[in-house]
Design goal:
By secondary structure, this protein is of the alpha/beta class. It has two domains: about 160 residues, Rossmann fold, CATH 3.40.50.300; about 80 residues, Rossmann fold. A four-stranded parallel sheet has the order 4-5-1-6. Strands 7-9-8 form a three-stranded parallel sheet, with helices on both faces. Strands 2-3 form a two-stranded parallel ribbon. The longest helix is centred in the N-terminal third of the chain and has 17 residues. The two termini are about 25 Å apart.
């Protein structure tokens, strides 16, 4: 709240944006509607998660919010930005696209959030992030949230921030989550499908059978989903080849327990586990 840059390393994080008078750039922190100069940004399902929570805060504070990401229609997103918004939640690629075609700009952005910084770098977004940050005023307040603290995240923090406060919850070493019971079975490739069906048979007899199955490829996700549904196992899958409206529908079916088995590739599943852990609390 004093306006300092922050680096926060923890298993989970949150984003908060408010035009606070103690921030040196706060004179222009509250951006008038219609100015087409947004204020804040985080990496498709993850953006929607943050939007779901952020809209409640923005409603109470009378702030406008836009969530922009690839895979969805551009027209509606562009119109929201053109009208002017106080807060933007965005994936890097789509935001950079709107900046490059002058749909919006970040010249009056005083508050920048990079959520899931390590994941964005893992997914190859560093060039886009650097282009976006280069368009934000230098007297901004920059907050970075990350689950891990590798060398590339440290380098980005050094380039983007000044005299940042460092907040750490837990160990900086990459380690398994101690709140999760983990069981590992080493199997031949040919035995995996049969063993998976045995496990699912046990899981589906439980009162709350919600299960996420991670697979390596989009093809494997489709094949397993077809096999399960053929055997009347209530499963759906999500991966990068699915259209946005289908991804949204699948997640909604899983969230409400109508389809308790979700198959996902690693990239498509980013942000899913925190969502459902959060809901169960």
């Amino acid at each position: 709240m004093s306006g300092r840059d922050i680096i926060s390393i923890a298993k989970t994080g949150s984003v908060h944006a408010s035009g606070h008078p103690s921030h040196p750039g706060a004179a222009q922190a509250r951006i008038p509607r219609g100015s087409k100069r947004p204020r804040a940004s985080p990496t498709r399902e993850l953006a929607q998660q943050v939007e779901e929570v952020g809209r409640e805060y923005c409603r109470d504070m009378n702030l406008s919010l836009a969530c922009i990401f690839g895979g969805a229609a551009r027209g509606h997103q562009a119109r929201e930005l053109s009208r002017g918004v106080d807060v933007i939640i965005a994936t890097p690629g789509r935001l950079l696209d709107f900046l490059e075609n002058n749909t919006t700009n970040l010249r009056r952005c005083t508050y920048l959030v990079l959520d899931e910084a390590d994941r964005m770098l893992d997914m190859g977004f560093e060039p886009q992030i650097r282009k976006i940050v280069s368009q934000v005023r230098p007297d901004r307040q920059t907050l970075m949230f990350s689950a891990t603290w590798p060398k590339d995240v440290r380098a980005m923090a050094a380039d983007f921030q000044k005299d940042a406060a460092f907040l750490n919850v837990g160990s900086l070493e990459l380690a398994a989550n101690h709140n999760i019971t983990q069981k590992i079975e080493i199997l031949d490739e040919s035995a995996k499908d049969r063993r998976l069906m045995e496990l699912l048979s046990d899981i589906l007899r439980q009162p709350e059978p919600k299960t996420i199955i991670f697979v390596d490829t989009k093809r494997k996700a489709d094949e397993l989903t077809y096999t399960m549904r053929r055997d009347r196992i209530p499963a759906l899958c999500i991966h990068g080849d699915k259209k946005q409206n289908e991804r949204d529908w699948v997640l909604n079916e899983f969230r409400h327990g109508r389809t308790p088995i979700l198959l996902a590739t690693d990239v498509a599943a980013r942000g899913l586990v925190p969502l459902f852990v959060f809901e169960r609390k």
